[in-house]
Design brief:
The complex is a heterodimer of chains A (289) and B (512). With 289 residues, chain A is of the alpha/beta class. Chain A has two domains: 227 residues, TIM Barrel (Alpha-Beta Barrel); 34 residues, Alpha-Beta Plaits (2-Layer Sandwich). Chain A contains nine helices and eleven strands. The longest helix of chain A is centred in the C-terminal third of the chain and has 14 residues. Chain A is globular. Chain B is α/β, with parallel strands linked by helices. Chain B has three domains: 32 residues; 162 residues, no CATH class; 206 residues, Anaerobic Ribonucleotide-triphosphate Reductase Large Chain, CATH 3.20.70. Chain B contains 19 helices and 16 strands. In chain B, strands 1, 2, 9, 10 and 11 form a five-stranded mixed beta sheet that branches. In chain B, strands 3-4-5-6-13 form a five-stranded mixed beta sheet. A two-stranded antiparallel sheet of chain B has the order 7-8. In chain B, helix 3 crosses helix 12. Classes of the chains: A alpha/beta (289), B alpha/beta (512). Chains A and B meet through loops of A and helix 16 and helix 17 of B. Chain B: This is YjjI family glycine radical enzyme. Chain B: It comes from Pleomorphomonas carboxyditropha. Chain B: InterPro entries: Glycyl_radical_YjjI-like.
Chain lengths: 289, 512
Amino acid sequence: MSDGIAAVSKFLTWSVVDGPGNRFVLFLQGCNYRCVTCHNPHTIGVCSDCGACVAVCPSGALTKTGRKVVHDPGPCIACDSCLAACPTRANPMVRRMTVADVLALLRRNAPFLNGLTVSGGEATLHLDFLIDLFTAVRAAPELAHLTLFIDSNGHLPAEGWQRILALTDGVMLDVKAFEPERHRRLTGVGNDLSLASAKLLAEAGKLYELRFLLIPGETDRPEEIAALADLAHELGPETRLRLNAFQHHGVRGPAAGWPAMPRDGVEAAAAVLRAAGVADVAVPSVWLP
Amino acid sequence: MTETLSQLRRIATNPTLSFKQKEHALAVAAENMLPYVLLDAETRAALDARIICDMYEGNAPYKPRYVLPDYGMVLKNGSAHLELPKPATLDEAINTLQIAYHHVPSVTGMPVFIGHLDALLLPFCDGVSDDELYRKIKLFWRYIDRVLPDAFLHADIGPTDNRVARAILRVDAELQQVAPNLTFLYDPEVSGEAMLRLCTDNIIACSKPHIANHPIHREVFDEPGYAIVSCYNALPLRGGAASLSRINLKKVAEASAGEADFLDVQLPRYVDLNARLMRARIDYLFRQSGFFDGNFLVEEGWIDKDRFTAMFGIFAMAEAVDHLQDLAGRTGRYGHDATANALGHRISARLAELVDREPMEHVWRGGAMLHAQAGLSSDAGTTPGVRIPYGSEPDPVSHVQALLPHHRHYLSGVSEILTLDETVRANPEAVFQLAKGALQLGFREFTANVAGNDLVRVTGFMIRLSDIKLYNAAKGSRVNTTALGAEAADTVHILERKPRVVGLELMAGSGV
């Protein structure tokens, strides 16, 4: 999707966990991974207007008009029944927003913001929109104080990064797993592009943070942690590493029955990484009871 | 009479009140055995229906609600009445202030204002090392919390970035005390962003200080200026507030046929009645109580009889707007819906216009000042001031945006409490930016609680969550305001929400 319009799953005017300071976060719809552990699975698919959600909507917010499913935010009670009913992991509540729409929101909230982070889904699937948006923000004097970040799984070839990187201040990159078969089993896709992106971004000085989701029995295994330490070394001593812990919130399918990642397991992995010489290892600042 | 006696007995035998707390409660009960100040029948009926409310200040007002002494007078001249020489050293200055505090009346029985401490103490700091200064402030802070343990007691610092302000912020974060409450008067031209960052970092550590928008407040007041006291009331220095009465906007809305009736008929009617109530109470204070006659505070220039304002309070804006929305068949709720928010802003503008038309004898500049009142612990089913109901607040940025247009109307104070979740601890830059943005856009004051802090703001005063637990286990509390916090925790269920703050309030006869 280009032509200055994107399908937006959600936006936030206050986020303190998507980069430095308070970020305006734009979640774009659609992903090229199919992670079994995804905690926002309704951001993966793109709506096919099948209408399965219209039948389960209790408030009349969803209707089928001609061939299109239409969402009216007025009566919507945000019960998310439509998300559970969607066969394609899409979201009928997404809105189509133009670059100008996003700029208006940024201007309105600019005094409160340190920057903009575009997330997903997978943000880089909307590369043309990203380029248009970042170019427009850079051209707006009243938005000059905003830093521009991308939250990505790295599934983008070097040519793609070259088009956006000059406009970008930093990328938060998720590496899902190191062992190729494991990565394919967890995400449906290989990890060559993701690992190459990590190196490319670090070399360009645009890797703000490398993120790694710890899943018990999968990515918390010693060989995965060792590979993570190796990658961090290769990327350079200033690499900032964030460990996240697999939780059940939002997860659908078999992974909802997997054990959640315990705090002591995260602390243990962090200790191994620090002992291996990775200086900057962050762990979750809040643990749910 | 038996009811009165059993009320006195309940106070006298209450196992959770200290001797001092009993003394204060008994004095309030005794005052209320006197007949109420003279009211006309219509005003009396509105008061009895609690559509207008006198904050249970007492039947016979014999002291102003809030007194803001100019402590500079006693530091400059000493006091003939108190036989105090003019202080020459930092120790003498602090000692003089500690003595002065005991002679300042207020509705709580303890001073609600203890001075612009940095401006007062800086002239005594030449030759005092930073380490000495830190140690002396620490002892001073401990004294205040242990001897005057009331969270309405308020110290101001700023707008300059100076040694005393920095020492106070350091000590305040370290000691995590309930008293004193603290406001930094922020002026972007004078204070500097480094000082604002220090303040927001302190908020993350202990939910203090409160940050006042100094340029906006300054233009409201003449010399010698103003102070922020108690629950974030902006009042004339060397004076204060004679009285505070308030309108329950929810009840006014319920008495209205619709928005037009509310704005054009009912609101003017109850503004008039509340003004009559205030005039009667203020007349008693100035002409019958004898408070100002032969008072050394007046004679030595600590206070000036002409610098007491009248605070015209309102509360339950959220419920009023939602009720009017219902009457109009609209579903949008206050705090979340643009139409509902705009209705609220119209109500505030109308209130400012109406209050402006009510002359008041005896008070500063001859008229009352509009105030978004933060509540009493006995309020149920209403939200303080113009705040968004607890538990339904949007994110902090949307929260500020929704309420911003109200702020210009509330000259004697309006406060929101922004609750920030614990993840901001790892990202203090975000709190700084939020505060900076809110102040830049014209928020009169910025106040935030961070989840996970033991110190939590209730309405405007601070409580310790651990104190509430002890109090509820019937062990009593050293700090006056814990009882209020505990009452609110029970009646308003303020602590059941996650890291929720309270829209707490006050016990009858105390002050917010």
